[in-house]
From TrEMBL:
Enzyme Commission number(s) of this protein: 4.2.1.18
Protein name as it appears in the record: Methylglutaconyl-CoA hydratase
Similarity annotation: Belongs to the enoyl-CoA hydratase/isomerase family.
Keyword Lyase attached: yes
Record SUPFAM superfamilies: ClpP/crotonase (SSF52096)
EC top class, as a word: lyase
InterPro entries in the cross-refs: ClpP/crotonase-like_dom_sf (IPR029045), Enoyl-CoA_hydra/iso (IPR001753), Enoyl-CoA_Hydratase/Isomerase (IPR051683)
MF GO annotations: methylglutaconyl-CoA hydratase activity
Keywords, ordered alphabetically: Lyase
Natural source organism: Gellertiella hungarica
Amino acid sequence: MSFETIDLSWDERGVATLRLARPEKHNALNEAMMHELVEAADIVEATPAVRAVILSAHGKSFCAGGDLNWMQAQAARDRHGKIEGARQLSTMLSRLDCLSKPLIARVQGNAFGGGVGMMAVADIVVAAENARFALTETRLGLIPATIGPYVIRRIGEGAARRTFLNGHRFGTDEALRFGLVSRSAAPDALDAAVEEEVALLLDCAPGAISEAKSLIRTLARGEVEDPVAFSEKALADRWESEEAQSRIRRFLNP
């Protein structure tokens, strides 16, 4: 696994760490990083030993958003090229969003634009108390379009109306209030807080976690005509699974 803009590894527990590795650019997203994030997501998805993924970053910042050189290059492309450039970002976000394994974002420093988008597709976001966030696209004459579906889903329309429009920077307390951040920790306790979340996940059945993620996506997006009947069938399927039956037996007969 050789990458230029990210690092990927996992430990004996099956906890993968996917780390952004452009600290000199505050981990700004360029074409190479987006492609490599998709490739890394495919690897962890296809690796049965991986049970959870931590998305983190080298350096002082989590992610400064889109790389300015990349954005300048997009502006110079023709219409087809611009749409293709936007699709690179949306493909990366979709791939992370659709991981069947739990994704924890470990956030320090600044997270702007696309960095907020990556937070929005994580299942759990643990942020340093002094982290700062912003959707600054309108300051550049742009809009947070490709990250929009995920961020609005995460924080709701009301919070999006302010954060999308005025580009203001906000802290972890505000991010906690509207659900962008799941929990906060002092900077020197950030890793410990992430490990607490990992431990909770590892204590659960991996197949059940995967199907729970699928259930959330299906119900939240209104993809079935009868969500009650769908949920009844989903629970019956789980009851019939060997994973559930073995765990129930262990619980009843410790």
